[in-house]
Amino acid sequence: MNRVRGYEFAGYERTVDSHVKNLRHKLGDVGPGLVVTVLGVGYRLGWTRDP
User: N or C, where is the chain less crowded by C-beta within 10 Å?
Assistant: First the structure.
């Protein structure tokens, strides 16, 4: 969070995980692989361009 926000984050340590869970729920069947978990790093958007 320091890299993203630029300051010490005083929130609950699982806040980002909770937001990602809610985002995945809202996306439903539209994008099952859209938000990808990168172990040891965090998350990334996983869309690809159509050929």
Answer: C
The string of DSSP codes covering 1-51 is -HHHHSS---S-TTHHHHHHHHHHHHHTTS-TTSEEEETTTEEEE------
Sequence ranges of the domains in the chain: 2-45
Task: Return per-residue pLDDT of the chain as tens, 51 residues.
Answer: 677 767 776 667 788 889 999 999 998 888 778 888 989 888 988 876 655
Amino acid identity, residue 49? Answer: R
